[in-house]
Amino acid sequence: MTTYLNDPQSEGQGLPIVATSSVALLIDFDNVTMGMRSDLSNELKVLLDSDVVPGKITVRRAYADWRRYPQYVVPLSEACVELIFAPAYGSSKKNATDLRMAIDGLELVFLRPEISTFVLLTGDSDFSSLVIKLKEYGKHVIGVGLQESTSDTLVQNCDEYYSYNSLTGLRKMSEEDVDPKDPWDLVAQAVSKMIDRNDVMRSDRLKQVMIELDPSFDEGDLGFNKFSKFVVEAANRNSIGIQKMENGQYEVMRGDKPNVKKSVVKLNDSSKPNSPDLQTGYALMVDCLRDQNDKGQESLIDSDVKRKMLRIDRSFDETEFGFKKFSKFLLQAEQDGVIKMEVAETGGYKVFTGHHLSDIGSMGLPTEKDAIVKYLTNSYQGIGKKTAEEVVVAFGEKVFEVFETSPQLVKEASPRRSEKLLDGWKADITRRRKVEINGKDSD
User: Fold this and answer.
1) Residue 392 domain flag
2) 428 lies in which domain range?
3) Where are the alpha helices (DSSP H) in 271-384?
């Protein structure tokens, strides 16, 4: 039996329209370019023929400023992908593409009601709102993105999420596969390649070409928390030339061969941030969890934790502490005993405050900085005013929480006196908990 739909917006209202299951593929090309190679036609064919796409694709659109990607126009056209031109102007160059794709996605809900599934090829968290809205209209949303640049929030919001790398046979090469190139030679080689193929000479495109030449490249391994800082250092070494444009981006060009090689510290994969500033991130997270506890909710989903943290402090960014993803920040916090996590039924994690934090605030400990300095100096054996001031400067009013949750940070803030500080804390908190228990028992 054939089912018919009536489109109230069409002039021929009442005419039969066959309701078939169809799919819309929307590609955020800026976001996924770094994972694509010259055999883009084959990669897309593999993706479109995979089990990920649950029906016939009736809409295929890719969004970008195509002046930046002339080498991809033919492969995409051969794959029957409609190229939507979103010109990049001023500081909103990225948002122009994102907004156009989001608007088209919602427009298709009403103009093409037969489309039941949307496949979004992106890893950008900005599209989470679009995903939620599509699901409200009863659409099934499938996300596909690069493993190394996909937002955890987007993954959780999609009905399904797949790795573009795995589906197309791509993978990030390990050190066993290839020896990583010297980054300063690599960046110079990338600029030359961009010039040879008449590419757009901007720093955002530069990184994509560098990863194309060496998939193991990551500026974070060199100690840079932003690619723009790596670009400036490359210019200082004369590996490339740069010129700042009005929109804040850097125009890149060939540089002179570097005369002096500066040493660069390469971080091991097993390394973790060793800055006392990490405690500020922990404190913000604990405040959010405690606020939720006060409202009767014992845990939060990991994506909600970050959302609440940003409401309180919009400057929070886990990459400033050396973490590429918020999930890694959470795992480190769990390892340090600040929080507990459990796998949620919907995927992701439930986040709880560490069991030992809940009672510290009720122990009668000083909360003002000057009072904390006096307390440590007078109450902890072997601790002088100078040491007390050191830890108060490092951790502020959260000193006692740091003692309890992150002893390794105390060792970094005061290497010579950390053992005495922690021994003093252990004796102090044990005594106070005994007093509290005895007091409750006597009641």
Assistant:
1) yes
2) 360-442
3) 278-294, 302-312, 326-335, 369-379
In a domain, 177, yes or no: no
pLDDT digits (tens, 9 = 90+) for 20-79: 578 999 998 877 765 555 466 677 777 777 777 888 899 999 998 888 778 788 888 888
| pTM of the predicted model as reported, rounded to 2 decimal places | 0.41
Provide φ and ψ at 429, rounded to 5°: -70, -35
**Rounded distance, CA 80 to CA 193, Å?**
28
Whether the CB-CB separation of 108 and 15 falls below 8 Å is answered with no
Residue of 408, 412, 414, 409 lying closest to 376 (CA atoms): 414
How far is 226 from 247, CA to CA, in rounded Å?
Answer: 17
Residues near 47 by beta carbon (within 8 Å), at least 6 away in sequence: 53, 144, 164, 167, 168
Q: How far is CA 269 from CA 175, 220, 221, 266, in A?
A: 12, 10, 8, 9
Query: The domain spanning residue 208 has which CATH number?
Result: 3.30.420
Angle, vertex CA 306, rays to CA 321 and CA 162, nearest 5: 95
Tokens, residue 23: 């799919």
CB 405 within 8 A of CB 338: yes
Inside any domain, residue 266: no
3-state secondary structure of 314: coil
Domain boundary, last residue among 304, 335, 353:
353
Task: Kindly report the number of other CB atoms within 10 A of residue 117's CB atom.
Answer: 20
Domain check: are 97 and 31 in the same one? yes
Provide the number of structural domains found in the chain: 4
Tell me 358's DSSP state.
Answer: T
Other beta carbons less than 10 A from residue 339's beta carbon: 27
Q: Among 328, 325, 307, 313, which residue's Cα sits nearest to residue 283?
A: 313
* Block residue for tokens 């480190």: 332
Return the C-alpha torsion angle 186, 190, 192, 198, nearest 10: 180
Instruction: Assess whether 63 and 100 both reside in one domain.
Output: yes
What are residue 58's phi and psi, to 5 degrees?
A: -100, -15
Could you give the CA distance from residue 217 to residue 328 in angstroms, rounded to a whole number? Answer: 20
What is the tens place of the pLDDT at every residue in 78-108? 888 999 988 866 544 556 788 899 999 999 9
Q: Which of 353, 380, 400 is the last residue of a domain?
A: 353
- The contacts of residue 107 (CB under 8 Å, 6+ apart) are none
CA distances 65 to 85, 197, 340, Å, are 5, 17, 44
